[in-house]
Amino acid sequence: MSFDTSVDTRQLMNWMIDPSSKVVFGAVATIITEQGEQNVQPHTDEEWNRVRNNAVMVLEAGNLLMLEGRARPSSVQDVADWNAKARAMSAAARTAIEATDVKDPEALFAASGDIYQTCTDCHEKYIFTAPPDGRQ
User: Which InterPro entries does this chain map to (predicted)?
Assistant: First the structure.
């Protein structure tokens, strides 16, 4: 079976994963200003559904990252690691979905931290960073 992977990994990140994960990351927060503390969290069914729908996008994006042709690494061992990182992102997103199902802001906050950590772990290994002098 073949899949259309003409949307490359960078596009998948920019067009799907980043926007969806930002909704999940921003769903629960405490903002402290000179005027006081503001707690941000979903309140209405519509707000909870928006977070859940975006968490589903993150979960499914993990599956899309594992399609042949999308993995960034070149070795078989690195592909296994890439896939493990993608599965970890999906698992963390599953926890976020479960938190939205029971409308638990604390669990959603923890799950969003787990999603963020899986993203960071993958980016540390697989995102190319140009040298400081700009050579590639």
Answer: Cyt_c/b562, Cyt_c_II
